[in-house]
Design brief:
Elements (H helix, E strand, L loop, with lengths): L1 E3 L2 H13 L4 E6 L5 H13 L2 E6 L19 H10 L4 E3 L3 H4 L18 H4 L3 H16 L3 E5 L3 H13 L5 E5 L19 H6 L2 H14 L5 H12 L5 E9 L15 E10 L2 E10 L1
Parallel strand pairs: 1-4, 2-3, 2-5, 3-4, 5-6
Antiparallel strand pairs: 7-8, 8-9
Helix pairs in contact: 6-7, 9-10
């Protein structure tokens, strides 16, 4: 496995790969790799000749009060995991490399970035869209892999790729879960033992919504009320949002109809830790 730290070296390597008529798959991450990331790497390996994993904790997608400084980092561990997973190139740039002092540009995916996570975290998706576009231009992939766990991120990236005519196929891979249903996330390490035991309620609430819908419930407010009651039965839990929305536009549904694809998503705080999760349902 080759480790690259500069933009120029990464672009040169990508050019050489493309000249050799091999395809590139990229998995953008913020590091602290877990089984969810490894599943994305596996999907990349199945869809490309050369797999590039990027590790960059992107400061522009964190608000001043958020956990940029405390976000878990362990490059030596990540390097070992990436090599064991069969990654060909690990791209680990510095903040100064990615954002020089005269950097001015941001990408704004209107409408999509202001909903759900965007409402709770203003500016978050400007940071996400901008860094992903930068990484695409540096790694020059044919295919990029994202996780369904960050559903809104995947929706925003797909729209950016469509609108800006990036010649890149976006693959959204299934969420990887712990045995109790908790979606794997680097932020799970923040949870206390009690919070960890109560964190299974996120997936339980999503499955409750799925059960209600499959059994004919159409009123989204009633579904959300049932989800809220379940979540708030846990002492450490506080709800940020619950959404039942169109998975392309993120517009909220009020009454569900047959033959709809529905994205049910939520953000819940367990103590000081904010977790997100979602499921897609075909009615």
């Amino acid at each position: 496995m080759k480790i690259i730290e500069t933009i120029s070296a990464m672009q040169s390597a990508a050019d050489e790969i493309r000249l050799s008529r091999k395809t590139i798959g990229v998995v953008p991450t913020m590091g602290y790799l877990h089984k969810g990331h490894l599943s994305l790497i596996k999907v990349a390996r199945e869809n490309a000749d050369i797999v590039i994993v990027t590790i960059f904790v992107n400061p522009t997608q964190f608000a001043p009060h958020e956990d940029f400084n405390s976000y878990p980092r362990d490059i030596s561990r990540d390097t070992q995991l990436a090599e064991m997973a069969g990654v060909d190139i690990l791209f680990i740039p510095s903040s100064n490399e990615m954002y020089p002092s005269d950097f001015l540009t941001t990408i704004n995916v209107k409408h999509l970035e202001s909903k759900l996570e965007g409402e709770s975290r203003p500016g978050h998706f400007q940071g996400v869209a901008t860094i992903v576009a930068i990484l695409f231009n540096i790694t020059k992939p044919h295919v990029a892999i994202f996780g369904q766990k960050d559903a809104q991120q995947a929706i925003v990236i797909k729209r950016m790729v469509q609108d800006l005519n990036f010649d890149i196929k976006i693959i959204v891979a299934p969420t990887v879960r712990e045995s109790d249903g908790l979606a794997m996330s680097s932020r799970n390490t923040y949870l206390s033992p009690i919070e960890r035991s109560e964190s299974a309620v996120l997936f339980a609430a999503l499955k409750e919504a799925e059960y209600l819908i499959k059994n004919g419930m159409k009123n989204c407010l009633t579904i959300k009320e049932n989800m809220s009651k379940l979540i708030l039965s846990k002492k450490s839990a506080a709800i940020d949002y619950i959404s039942i929305a169109n998975p392309i536009t993120l517009d909220e549904y009020e009454i569900l109809e047959k033959s709809q694809l529905v994205l049910i998503s939520l953000a819940v705080r367990l103590g000081k830790t904010r977790l997100i999760d979602n499921i897609l349902i075909n009615i």
